[in-house]
Amino acid sequence: MPKLLKEYPILTICLLVALMLLPHLDAIQVSIMEARNFITAREMVLNDNWLLTTMNGEPRYQKPPLPTWLTAFSGLLFGIESIFGMRLPAVLLVMVIGCFMYKLSRSILKSRGHALINAFIVVTSFYVIGIIIEAPWDIFTHGFMLVAIYHLHKLFKAEGTVWKHTIIAGFFIGLSLLSKGPVSFYALLLPFLIAYAFSLKYKNAKAKVFSFFSVLIIALIAGGWWYVFVRLNDPTTFNAITEKETGNWTSYNVRPFYYYWSFFTQSGLWTIPAFISLLYPYLKTRVSNYKAYKFSLLWTIFAVVLLSIIPEKKSRYLMPVLIPLAFNIGFYIEYLIRRFKDLKDKRETLPVYFNFGLIGTIAIAFPIVFYSLFTSELHHHWLPFIVASIILVTLGMFILYKLKQKNIKHVFLLTVLFFTSVFAVGLPLMELFKSDTFRSIASLKEDNEKRGITLYSFKYVAPETIWQYGNMIPQIQYHNNEFQFPLESKFGVLTNRISTEDLSLLKAKFNVKEVSTYNLNQAKEGTKQYNDRLTNTFYILSKK
Description:
Distance between the termini: 76 Å
Strand order of the largest sheet: 3-6-8-7
Oligomer: single chain
């Protein structure tokens, strides 16, 4: 590793993540899971619902509140409607994962360069980045758990009880529980503990029994108090939500046991190195630290197996596996850096040339391919296109040049910079994909205030719509086989794809005026990304 990177590894990791994600943090459209978190954070600030959390005025206990608290605090600093501010805490947790991957790797491997390789891999693994948009709670629960794992490792290797690591480990396990319940305990910590026992071994375990017990007690106190509070203050709702959530584990989104077997593809541009790093017979005699390699491999495999046992499966649940997998990939990359110039066997060299050669070729081909596909749309976006083209082509040329020289250290670092640049200079080009039919609902709140009417939702309105509206949109409830309409003489209604029967029902009771249709789809109609639930029609209803 270059001397500067080795001397300031933590700063380097943080700057890399900041360069990659912060400049255009608000460029990607808010997802449904983000919207739920953002709405809850907004209602914490506006309605003071910090403990009995709500979403659109309804109890929202499905997810613990810590990520939402952090989002709300950031919203207070940057503005409660600032997407940058609301997403910032998740980006900071990516930095935390990178930094503690470095610290854990450094402690186990005794090599700053190898530890930095692992850290770079984890923060450039595709789904580690993707999860902050798709399911923001996950990055918090697994980030806090990785901090706890580092301190548990320090406790395990110590001669006796170290209360500093005991307290910190317990506290951060608690923070993980307060972010998404026991998910990370099962998917990240448990496989870590099993793998550690089989490879690195616990040191003086009997003498530390009280310390281990203390970790558990601290974790339960730090992570369990909110569940107790809600259970005591709103038991009926809490029990109903808990029963539904636990029932989903066995009856919702059920997939076969082998559903996760392609888990290594979630690492994105590290897919081929990830696959090779899992080939134990090939790599076991080539790694620089066999016991540590055995540990990372077992940690990865046990995590996948444990997740596979649960009937409910989603691709995003694999995100914690990318943490030990990055550790595992690092052994293969470190081996290539040491030995690639001496390798003669094409079975070893061809995958390397193919993987990094493909990345370099894609970078060089970017301007040609992108221009040919989006010629007509580029007339308002020439500057970001030219900047992206210059940077990506330059990196691609250097990747191929250094690959030809068999300088894998530089190839690796250039690949990390390529991934970083795709986000840093590529995200502004997202504007090219925005549909002409997109129409924001952000102005409707102010318009309704001028009209002097309250807006209600009739049947389904997507969380993204509620978030963009800027306030709660109370739902018209359905009880005893009839809708409970507001008592106001005049009010607004927002609805998604109202049926003919429902429209007739409204017209029988009210004077119905269709005002406007809002389409929050930034993707063009007919594409895979287009979603019908993001279209809404606004009506004004007045009593006859």
